[in-house]
Amino acid sequence: MHANESAAVRAAAALIKLLILDVDGVLTDGGLYYDEDGRVVKRFNVQDGMGIKLAQAAGLQVAVISGLASKAVEKRMRELGVTEYHAGFKEKWETVEDIRQRFGVATHEIAFLGDDWVDAAPLLRVGLPLAVANAQPEIKALAKWISTAQGGQGAVREAICFILDAQGKLDALWQRWI
Predict the structure, then answer these.
(1) How many CA atoms lie within 13 Å of 37's alpha carbon, on the beta-carbon side?
(2) 37-84: pLDDT as tens digits
């Protein structure tokens, strides 16, 4: 059991139907790398990508909301089959609510993984607020679960595995690979 897992947190994870992810600092390490032409380059962790594919295979919906617009993120989300990618939203709750209504899920059936102040509003309202290990202290204080991995270093995969394990789906996914 993860250090910050309790029976109540596992019970909340068992109800999750929709996982919403921040990008910078969650799916990436938060760094903005500029090439010589001034274009921003982002680094993604392949294990996080595999985690998203596992979530999809298990029937867990995945959406992504970013405060910044990025062609690199858009391309990566397409590669992963994430159709709910929303870019340029610093006020994220309204977008979460739109996704929630379209998917027909209750707020207690949503998990949100964030790292910085722009993620506070969703974290205060969803059923399972999650934070990466290197999230800002205020964000960690809002989270019911905090990864051991830092953003961009497998934290998304860790969160997904936690949710799928709580739902009793992780072992069956593992069995497909052995």
Answers:
(1) 2
(2) 988 888 999 999 999 999 999 999 999 999 888 888 999 999 999 999
Residue at 113 is within a domain: yes
Structure tokens at 62: 């995945």
Q: Which domain holds residue 11?
A: 7-175
Q: What is the 3-state secondary structure (H, E, C) of 60-87?
A: CEEEEEECCCCHHHHHHHHHHCCCEEEE
Per-residue confidence band for 2, with pLDDT thresholds at 50, 70 and 90 = low
In the numeric block, which tokens belong to residue 17?
């139907």
C-alpha distances out from residue 88 to 35, 135, 159, 161, Å: 21, 20, 24, 28
Is 48 part of any domain? Answer: yes
Residue 55's Cα: distance from chain center in Å? 11
In degrees, to the nearest 5, what angle opens at C-alpha 20 toward C-alphas 18 and 24? 165
**CATH number, domain at 147?**
3.40.50.1000
